[in-house]
Every structure is written in C-alpha cells, then in structure tokens.
Write a structure and sequence with these properties.
The protein is mainly α and about 100 residues long. It has 2 domains: about 55 residues; about 50 residues. Helices cover about 80% and strands about 0% of the residues. The chain is built from 6 helices and no strands. The radius of gyration is 17 Å and the shape is flat. It starts with a helix and ends with a helix.
Length: about 100
C-alpha cells in the first residue's frame, strides 16, 4: 500500500511541475511541492518495511505479496484519477490476487 501511495503522490506532484530546469529557482520551487515530499516519505517507509520483511519472512512468500500493489494502484486509478478500468483488467487483477492467496497458503 505504501508503494502505491508513493506512486500516487509522485504522479500528483509531477503534475504540478510545468517545466524542468537545473536551476536553483526550480529546485526551490519543488521544495514546497508537498506531494513529491509525501511520495518520498511513502517510498522510504516502504523500503524500511521491505527490509524488515526480508529479514523476518521467506523471500518466496514475501516477494509475491508485492503484487498487492497492483490492487491498490488500480483502485487509485479508478477513484483518484477517474480512469476507466476495463473489465478484462479487473479480471486480470482477480487472477493475480488468486495467485497471491495460493502462494500465501
């Protein structure tokens, strides 16, 4: 969920950037771009959680669980960004979730 939230904040933050330049003015303008900061926070927290999970659980179980990010990403696409998600994509997501359930058992 942290990875998906980080990507959502990143997309929102990048949408606030009009143009990119290697100037102090541009860098200063991005310091107040709070969605970019939130993206960095979410992705940092996700990395720390990932490190903990790798130390504590089997890799063959933990790594497939990252596919749950597809679920959160699709929900965010539909609700936050108002994107149309075709039924075939929802079906594909259901298959991925079924696979995660089989791996977890």
């Amino acid at each position: 969920m942290l990875l998906a939230a980080g990507q959502v904040f990143l997309k929102i933050g990048l949408g606030r950037i009009n143009g990119v330049s290697l100037s102090w003015k541009f860098i200063a303008s991005q310091i107040v771009n709070w969605p970019l900061a939130a993206a960095g926070g979410c992705l940092t927290a996700a990395t720390l959680l990932w490190i903990y999970m790798l130390r504590r659980f089997e890799f063959g179980v933990v790594y497939p669980m990252t596919s749950l990010g597809y679920l959160f990403g699709m929900i965010a696409a539909a609700t936050i960004f108002q994107e149309h998600i075709p039924p075939t994509r929802w079906l594909g997501l259901a298959l991925v979730i079924a696979g995660i359930i089989l791996i977890a058992k």
